[in-house]
C-alpha cells in the first residue's frame, strides 16, 4: 500500500489492545473505542487515537476491526443505534476477530444484507496466540470470507499475523469461526488441565516451580501450560490476562454446537462444568490459572517439598502422566470434531501446533490421527496402552489421596472405553457415533 | 431353631444399630461392640448387651456379625490383637455385612485359613435398603459363601432380610461383594443426582418441596431421591444418616475395580470427583444429601417460586428430564459392569429394583437391557432418542444459566457417543470395549 489507511478498532482488552497498538507501531492511524475509560487513556499514551463513540470510531475508516468479547457485544457494537455501521463508509472492510459461534458470524453477513449494507466486506477472522503475539503482530488467524473481501482485507490480516500463520479456511464466512471452535476444544481442555495438574502436584507435596520445569521439558508440554503456569506460580489472577468467563464463553460455543449436531465432547463438557463451579466461587473475572484454588488454598510456589529426590521424580512423573493422558484425548476430541464438521484437518494441525491449543501430544499423535480419519492409513496406528497405563498410575494415586481429577478420570474412561488394545483408531472411533 | 443362639455384633452405625436392635427385638441375646460410647449406651437402652471389647463381644458366640464401615476397619476388628477371632469359638459363623472390595472378602477367607481358623464359617454378605429396613429386618442381602457356611448361617441372613430379598450369589465368598459393587454403581450415581437435580431446580427458581413431589410421581423416581430428599428439604446433614465418606468408599471400590479390569465407569467416575470436591469443602462427615450446597447456599425448601404455573411445570419437567437421563445411563453402567464381571443379571435386576439402587428407569429399561446383554434379544431395543432430546433440553437450559451439571452432561455425552439412532443396544455397546 502506498499510503497507510486509517483503521477503526473496538474492544481494547488484553488481545485487542495488543493488536491495535501493534498497528499503531506499524504506522497506521488507529482510532480505538472501548467502554473502559482507563484503557482509552492507555491507548492514547501508546499513540492511538481514542474515541468515546463507536460510530465516530468508524467514520471514514475503510478498515474496521471488531475485537469485543462476545457475539452479543459484537451485535450491539456493529448493529447498535450508534454502532459501527452508522459510521462505516461505503465499501469498507469489517473484520470480526472475536471468538463467536460460526452461526453468529454467518448471521452478521446476512444482517448486513438485510439492513442494506451489502457494500461492507465482512471477514470472519478469529485469532489465537495470546497477548504477546497480539502485540507483536504474530498471531495465528483463521479467516473465512468471500474472495472479494479477502482481496481487499488480506493485507490487514497479514499485518496482524505471523508469516505462515494466516489460515484462509475454505467455506466463506463461518469457516474461520468453526476452525477457531475446534481449536478451542484444545484450549478449553488444556486450561483446566493446568490447574488440575498443579492441584494434584500440590497435594503430592510438589513445589509448583519444580512442576513447571519438569512439565515444560516433557511430553506433557502444552502452550497453555507454559503460558498459564507463569501466572499460577505468581498467583497473578486479579485479573491476570484471561478471565474464566472468556473460556466459559468458548466452551459454551463448543458444547452447544456439539449438542446441536449430536456430537460428543466429553472432556470439553467436563471442563465446562468445572468452569461453572469456578464461576460459582466468584472467580469469573479472575484469570483462569487461578482455578488451581479449587485444589489448594496455598500458593503452589510456596510448597516446601519434603520428598527424597527419588520420590520427587516419581511424583513429577505422575503429573506428567496425568497431563499427557489428558492432552492425548483432547487431541482426539478436537480432530474428530473438526472431521465431523468437515474442516480440513491438515490446516487445523498446522494452526494448532503453533497456537494456544498446541501440545507435545497433539504435535506427535495428532499427526498420526489425521491420516486415520482421512482414511489414508490402513493401520489404526499408535498403540496407546502404555499411555493408558501411565495415566492409570496417576489416577490410582489421586484416588488414594482423594484428589479430584475431573479431566484425568474422563480421559482414562475414554481410553478404557476404546478397549483393551486401545490405539489411535479405537480412540477416534469413540467420536464417530455408530 | 429351638433355642435362640447368642449373637455377637460390631459396628453399631446407622445400619448396624438397626440390624442389631432388630435381632434384639426378635428375641436374640445380642452383644454389641462399638468404639463410640454413647452408641453403646443407646444399644443397652434398646435391650442389647454392650461390650467394650471386641474379643469379649465374640466370646462363646456361635454367630458374629461384622458391620463396620470399611475393609480396613474389618481387618482390625477380625484379625486385630484383641479382635473378634480372639474370642470366637470353634466352628462359629462370621458374617461380614460391610461393603468391601470382593478381593478383600476373599482375603478374609484366605487369612482365616492362614491363621489356622479354617473352622470359622465365613459369609460375605453386604446389605442394602437403608436404616429403616435394617431396623425392621427387611434388608436386601447379597451373600456369597461356601455351601457349608450357608447351611449354618442362612437362617440369620433370613432374620435380617425381607422374604425374597435374600440373594444367594453363585461363586462363593466375593460374589456377594461383587453384586453389592455393581448395585452401588446405581447408588453412587443416584446420590449425586439428587443434589444435582435439587441444585439445578433451585437455580431455576423452583422450591424443593415442589421438586420432590413432581419427581417422586414421575419416571425420574429413584429410591435415593425419595430417601435423600427428605434430608435435603430438612437440611438434615449434620450428620444426617449417610456420610459423604461412605459413598466415597463405595465409589472407590467401584472405580478401582473397574480400572484394574480396564472397564469404563464414566458416570461413577464423575460422581467420585464431585464427592472428592465435597470432601474438600469439609463435608466428609455430613450427609451426602448436603452436597446440594455445591449449587446453592440457600435451603431449597425456602425458595419462593415466582413462576407462572406453566413456567413452573416446564421447569419441573427439565429437572425430571435431567434425572431420567442420568438414571438411564446409570442403569446401563451398572448392568454392563455386572455382565463384564460375570454376575447373573436377572439377580441384579431383582435385587436393585427393590433396594437403594432402584429407579423407575432401571425398572423399566433395565428389564430390556438384560436380554440384549445376554444375547437373547435380536433387537437392540428401545429407541432412546426421545429421552436424549429431553435431556438435551435440560442441558441447554443449564448452560444458559451457567449451572454445572456434572452427571447430566456426562450422560448426554454418552448418549451422543452411542450415535444418532441411540437405543439400548448402542448405549450398552459403549461399555463393551472393542
Automatic annotation (TrEMBL), chains A, B:
Cited InterPro entries: 6-PGluconate_DH-like_C_sf, 6PGD_dom2, 6PGDH_NADP-bd, HIBADH-like_NADP-bd, NAD(P)-bd_dom_sf
Origin superkingdom: Eukaryota
Pfam families: NAD_binding_11 (PF14833), NAD_binding_2 (PF03446)
Domain annotation 3-hydroxyisobutyrate dehydrogenase-like NAD-binding: ranges: 174-294, 318-420
Any GO MF annotation of the entry: NAD binding
Domain 6-phosphogluconate dehydrogenase NADP-binding: 7-162
Alphabetized SUPFAM superfamilies for the sequence: 6-phosphogluconate dehydrogenase C-terminal domain-like, NAD(P)-binding Rossmann-fold domains
PANTHER family the record matches: 3-HYDROXYISOBUTYRATE DEHYDROGENASE-LIKE 1, MITOCHONDRIAL-RELATED (PTHR43060), L-THREONATE DEHYDROGENASE (PTHR43060:SF17)
Protein name (Swiss-Prot/TrEMBL): NAD binding domain of 6-phosphogluconate dehydrogenase-domain-containing protein
Organism: Massariosphaeria phaeospora
